[in-house]
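User: Please predict the structure of the protein below. I'd like the answer in structure-token form so I can feed it into my own downstream comparison script.

Assistant: Understood. Taking the following sequence of 431 residues as input:
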Amino acid sequence: MGLWPGLSSRFLFRHALPFSPRRKKVFFLSRSPQAFPTAWFLASVATYMVPNGIQMVMLSYLMAIELNQSPGSFGFTQMVGQLPLLLFLLMGGWVADRVDNRRWLMTLQGIGLVMPLLLAVLVWNGVAGEVSVLLYAVVWGVVGAFSLPARDGLLRRIAGTNVQQLVGLAIGTQFASQMVGQTIAGQAARFGTVTVLLLQAAIAAAGIFVASRLPGGRAPQERSNGSILSELGAGLRMIASTPVLRANYLISIGMGVFFGGFLLVLMPLAVRDLYHGGAQDIATAYVMFAAGTLLSIAWLTHRGGVRQPGRALVITQVTACAALVPISLGVSLEIFYLCIFLWGLSAGVAMTMSRTIMQEQAPATHQSRIMAALTLMTTGGGPLGALIMGQAIAAVGVREAVLLPILAVLGCTLASLATHSVIGLSSRSHA
């Protein structure tokens, strides 16, 4: 796995956005953050996602392995840990549409480094328990609920006419960085939990400087005399009233809730219950998913995206479901990892297409709120999915529970096709 960070960094800077040799020279000679904002934007994504990857594995490791929680309790813990995304994402989008996102991201990165430091102290003193580990997850969830919409609000401003390409690069950076964080956390037994937590805090701190190099300013404002609650729901209302956004959102519900629950609960519990694995094996499963996602996004960005993102989105929902079917048949650990990798290949295309459709179709005045509503399902839907998957596993077992997300995702995809011909949608930023 050591090759992936190097490959991803070379790829990102080679394909970052179409620019001339003269612009390359300007970037390397200039100290201005506006000289090459794409690089600082991707670095900002990385300094958030590496700590996020560390947290994903550490939370699963501490709760499922060290504290040996039951499937129902583990699903509930994951739900509570992800709950801030569900509760605060719409507010995060509302705030991001109204503030200077550069300064706001600097503040959020500073808040994010507090809990890893605190938990490291508690672990060092041998007093860390379920409450402190859960608080560690909740605080980072709050940071994510406000920082994700803020970055989404900046993306189209930075991308210009290259939205699909920068969406792919951002998601690729997200998963490459998350994979690095997951690999680091997988070595917790070797280097110690405290060391991993301190490294997580240090990377979050570096994100403060990176965020300071992003373009400043606020998005265009739309005058409104509505209440705060009305403003928070403006993104959802616009999605519900716009056929293409609504169809895309239905597919996102399937991905966020049911594939999210698979990722958070079923995958680590499959490693524990079917293969008797530990932290390294859980980390390997997460890394295989991220590797597949990164590879498909690298391919997408290299070819300049796709002409019909709706068609690609629908096809990859079917291929993702097909990739997970063998797990229900009792395959070996190696085949399990292969299934997760193939699922990641489909997920990389699906996430890029879903976010491209939203970024291209959303009006600038509601950009962050609409993207926050999308993230509410693709990421914030995980708590509901975690609870559902935990209960399903407790009722029928890991292998049988695999069929639930497969059937649910296919059902959401068919419902989307019944409301809008998203398959025929053309991209505005296909190269």
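That's the full token string. The CA atoms of residues 313 and 350 lie 5 Å apart.
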